[in-house]
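Hey, I'm writing a tutorial for new members on how sequence and structure tokens pair up, and I'd like a real worked example in the thread rather than a made-up one. If someone can provide the structure for the chain below, I'll link this post from the tutorial.
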Amino acid sequence: MIFTRFRRAARDPDTISALYGMIVAQARLPVFYRDYAVADTVNGRFDLIVLHLTLAMDRLMADPALKSLGQGVFDRFCRDMDDNLREMGIGDLKVPKEMKKMGEAFYGRAQVYREALAAPDNDALAEAIGRNIYGGSPPELAAARRLAVYMRGAAGDLSAQAAADLAAGQLRFPDPAAVR
């Protein structure tokens, strides 16, 4: 049919789960908590997931053929956060309020990260990371700067990944231990 080329690409739940799983696995690498001094807390883990999700979403949404997949990954993130809230004992009546806060946190951080990544140096990015990841007071400025270098490198690596690989559920982040 002539209209088939205008249909949205089907969302493959296995591909979405694979991509989201890679985002979460990267955010949970011990090196971030050990060497980058990110707090190994619910908030610290959430912020690292948001950081990696932002990078992946920006790459997926930049390609018209991958936008539907990007939306699927974001929807999977929302379901995961909802599930986590319920597992932590948040009541059914409070979950929507908490989800709204998480959504606002994601969109706010994503916007700040995008703007900072557009700058030619890492100063704004390190400042945004210091505020969001480290709560305004990184244990040392070097930790925020190192995470900024990692984030910029990850954004570059993701932009170079082939759309076909991403559509097949293959997402590669750089090794954070290699960043100095």
